[in-house]
């Protein structure tokens, strides 16, 4: 079977953009079993409580839920098992240093299929305080009001 070209978004972690300031993003491959990739292609992925951590020079994603594949019988996978991310050593060292010294967090923001391969976008993020979240909500509401007023003006109301 030929690999499909292009990128197809499977899952997105919108809560990460609400709870964190995203500083940098990295694209990483995933080490998966056969039933996991089939389930991902079907779109059965949740990044709700997922996080990543550097353990012994390798990056792992924890709590990323990939639903069991329906036709997977006894070879099905554990839905919440830790999954290894494939990154260059230089990138892993940079992430490890940022997490240790700056107190940043590694958060998976997207899972997508790129040229037939499952990829995850890892973000180096800083946590938002409650007042930062309120400020972002005010800004979003103000932009929404501006767009509404511009549309009304363009219609001639």
What proportion strand? 35-45%
Q: Stretches where pLDDT falls below 50 for ≥5 residues?
A: none
Envelope shape:
globular
Distance between the termini: 56 Å
**Mean pLDDT score, rounded?**
88
| Residue share in helix | 25-40%
Question: Largest beta sheet, briefly?
Answer: 7 strands, antiparallel
| CA-atom Rg in angstroms | 19 Å
- Could you say which structural class the secondary elements and strand pairing correspond to? alpha+beta
Strand adjacency order, main sheet: 1-8-9-2-7-5-4
Q: What's the number of helices?
A: 4
One letter per element, helices H and strands E, the order comes to EHEHEEEEEHEEH
What's the total count of β strands? 9
Offer a quick outline of the entry.
The chain is α+β, with helices and mostly antiparallel strands.
């Amino acid at each position: 079977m030929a690999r499909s070209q292009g990128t197809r978004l499977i899952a997105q972690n919108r809560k990460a953009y609400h709870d964190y300031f995203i500083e940098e993003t990295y694209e990483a491959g995933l080490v998966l079993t056969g039933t996991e990739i089939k389930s991902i292609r079907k779109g059965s992925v949740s990044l709700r409580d997922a996080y990543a951590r550097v353990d012994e020079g390798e990056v792992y994603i924890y709590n990323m839920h990939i639903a069991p594949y329906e036709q997977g019988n006894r070879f099905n996978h554990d839905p919440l098992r830790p999954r290894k991310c494939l990154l260059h050593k230089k990138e892993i060292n940079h992430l490890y240093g940022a997490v240790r010294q700056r107190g940043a967090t590694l958060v998976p923001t997207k899972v997508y299929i790129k040229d037939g391969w499952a990829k995850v976008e890892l973000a180096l993020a800083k946590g938002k305080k409650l007042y930062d979240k309120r400020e972002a909500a005010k800004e979003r509401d103000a932009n929404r009001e501006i767009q509404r007023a511009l549309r009304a003006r363009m219609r001639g109301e």
